[in-house]
C-alpha cells in the first residue's frame, strides 16, 4: 500500500501499514508513484486528473471530493457521509475495544472552533481535533 503524508505524519502512517509513504509536500504524488496501482483513494483537493494516470487499466478511482473527469476510462466510485446511529455505535465499540485506532492530535475547547477551521484550511492540523464544550 502506498500512502501520502507530510513528514510530521509519515511515521504514524507507516505504523498503520503503509509499505511506502510519499511526502506530498516535497513531490507531487503523480510523480512519486512509479508503479500502476489498483485503487486511488482521493480524499484531498489534489487534481483528480493528475492521479488517474496512476491506475491500472481496470483500476478504481474512489473519491470523496470530485469525480474523475468526463471521458476518463476508469471506474469511479463517489462516497458520501450519511448519518447512521447504528454504524456510529459500531465504530465507537471498535474504538473502545482497541480494534480501531483514531489518531487524536489534540483536544481543545469549543471556543477554539474558528481557529481550528483556520488551521485545517492552512493544512496545519495533525490528526483529529476533539472540541470539548
Write out key terms for the chains shown.
133 residues, single chain, alpha/beta, 2 domains, 5 helices, globular, three-stranded parallel sheet
Helix-strand blueprint:
Blueprint: E1 2-5, H1 10-15, E2 20-23, H2 29-32, E3 37-42, H3 48-52, E4 55-63, E5 75-78, H4 85-97, E6 104-109, H5 113-121, E7 128-132
Parallel strand pairs: 1-2, 3-4, 4-5, 6-7
Written overview of the protein:
The chain has helices at 10-15, 29-32, 48-52, 85-97, 113-121, and strands spanning 2-5, 20-23, 37-42, 55-63, 75-78, 104-109, 128-132. It is an alpha/beta fold and 133 residues long. It folds into 2 domains: 2-78, NAD(P)-binding Rossmann-like Domain (Rossmann fold, 3-Layer(aba) Sandwich); 85-132, no CATH class. Strands 3-4-5 form a 3-stranded parallel beta sheet. It starts with a strand and ends with a strand.
Overview in brief:
With 133 residues, the chain is an alpha/beta fold. It is built from 5 helices and 7 strands.
- Overall 3D geometry? globular
What is the residue-mean pLDDT, rounded to a whole number?
84
Number of strands: 7
CATH architecture of the largest domain: 3-Layer(aba) Sandwich
Low-confidence stretches: none
The major sheet is characterized as:
3 strands, parallel
Query: What's the domain count?
Result: 2
CATH class of the largest domain: Alpha Beta
Structural class, by secondary structure, is alpha/beta
The helical percent reads 25-40%
Please give the count of helices. Answer: 5
Radius of gyration: 17 Å
Strand content: 25-35%
Instruction: Kindly report the name of the CATH homologous superfamily of the largest domain.
Output: NAD(P)-binding Rossmann-like Domain
Here the CATH topology of the largest domain equals Rossmann fold
Strand order of the largest sheet: 3-4-5
Give the end-to-end Cα distance, rounded to a whole number of Å. 38 Å
Order of helices and strands: EHEHEHEEHEHE
